[in-house]
Amino acid sequence: MTSRSGFLTFSALNGRHHRAALNVFMFIVIAHWAEHIVQAIQIWGLGWPRPKARGVLGVWFPWLITSEWLHYGFAIVMLAGLWLLRDGFTGRARTWWMVAFGLQFWHHIEHLLLLLQAQTGHYLGGAAVPTSLVQLIVPRVELHLFYNTVVFIPMVVALYLHLRPTEAEARAMACSCRPSDVSARRRVQAATAS
User: Fold this and answer.
1) Distance of alpha carbon 153 from alpha carbon 134, whole angstroms
2) Residues 6 or more apart in contact with residue 93 via CB below 8 angstroms
């Protein structure tokens, strides 16, 4: 359902539009994660120097890779998406979705710290560039590939469980992802597994 102003309400986002919203959100998440993977391939597979390894978009638009606003903006989009879509999840899937949210919250704090340093010109630990807390120990490329991976994994687990709910979880679901007949689907899965 939409509000009088034409915008989606939270109940519609987590109801009849949940599947579509998850599809759009996951496309954005996977595209961003792929950028980190391409950057890693450029460094370790192709032997590019780190400043030249900018992912796909960064090769064409080099300023993107150095924009802390862009990185922080994506961290906020991830955090907002995880929070806004949470009510569509039930049971085990919701638990895993909220694990992803908690991990992304920390990832967002690290990006906020980087953004604040970029804006003020005061860098953590006397570094020459903006530096996050964990980046004092782990290089930035590896760290953010790790962060995106550890947020992505519980999201995938949540989606898997969300699309394969127990009968009790399916009854509690109010979103467009709800299977029409969990019992019938379970019988078909059992028969095809044999």
Assistant:
1) 20
2) 158, 159, 161, 162, 165, 169
| Residue whose structure tokens are 């994660």 | 33
Rounded Cα distance, 193 and 67, in Å: 50
Which candidate, 101, 140, 132, 134, places its Cα nearest to that of 114?
132
Query: Tokens in use for 122?
Result: 């005061």
Q: Could you count the other beta carbons within 10 Å of the beta carbon of residue 138?
A: 14
**Token pair belonging to 58:** 């960064």
**Cβ within 8 Å of residue 159, ≥6 positions away:** 22, 26, 93
For residue 141, the SS3 value is helix
The CA R_g of the chain, rounded to the nearest whole Å, is 20
User: Exposed, middle or buried: residue 119 (CB in 10 Å: 0-12, 13-18, 19+)?
Assistant: exposed
Q: Model pTM?
A: 0.83
Tens digit of each residue's pLDDT (9 = 90 or more) over 30-80: 998 888 899 899 999 999 998 888 888 888 888 877 788 888 999 999 999
Q: Are 134 and 142 contacting, i.e. CB atoms less than 8 angstroms apart?
A: no
DSSP lists the bridge partners of residue 8 as: 2
Three-point CA angle 74, 33, 53, nearest 5°: 95
Other C-beta atoms lying within 10 Å of the C-beta of residue 167: 12
